[in-house]
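Handoff note, outgoing to incoming analyst
You'll be picking up this chain. Sequence as last confirmed:
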Amino acid sequence: MAEMNLNDLNSHVDGLMVVYKGDIVDLAHAIGAARIGHHYGWRVLRLIISQVSYRKYQKILGLDFKESLPEFTIYTEKSAGYQLVMKLNNFWDVVCGKAKIDRKEKTRVV
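Most recent structure output, in case you need it:
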């Protein structure tokens, strides 16, 4: 599947809502994650939700976020967490839990 624009994503979610059977709260979280990922990119999404939730939401939506959401957007750099991870230059180590970030460290968001 190719990267989706917002209209494609909305159409996909609209179609899914017609046939979805399951916990509506999980669906709401999955839709919210997809929208955040659309605006901030899948890398920011990967940082802000757990690996378990990331996979769960992909399954609920029937999407591979890396394929259907942009990697970076004009908003990616606005994420304080993403800025800090890039400063440390270890995105995948943080995502995989190999490197920890001191939550008390402040990052200036521009």
